[in-house]
Amino acid sequence: MIRKARVNDVVVMKQIINTYSKEELMLARSLSEMYENIRDYYVCEIDGEVVGCCALHVVWEDLAEILALAVNPVCARKGIGTKLVTSCLEDAKHLGMKEVFALTYVPGFFETLDFKVVDKNTLPRKIWSGCLRCPKFPDCNEVAVLKSIHS
Question: pTM of this prediction?
């Protein structure tokens, strides 16, 4: 079941994210950052256990970012990531966003959801604030993907 995250989900969400951030496959998130942005997050819950998370962060009046997409490796490749991103896209549409982007090492996943690969330099500079915390900065090899949202 996909639902909005609650504060009591944060510790488990961080553990799932840390699985990937330790391998430098995604940016680590602090508990403080996650609590402060809890309204951005969705989780997937199976049998009462949170097994995945994803956030939709509004960047500007018409642009949002999908970030912190992580699924417990035991539950990977079962459609959970797709359901989480789809929930974020529905939220983006409801909010009136025109475009949603993500920075990813797995562009093919997003392409199955009709995202298009774009040049990172076409995105607003504001999005790079999170990149400053990345151990790979400034030699980022993430791929930018973008999807237009139709009302």
Answer: 0.91
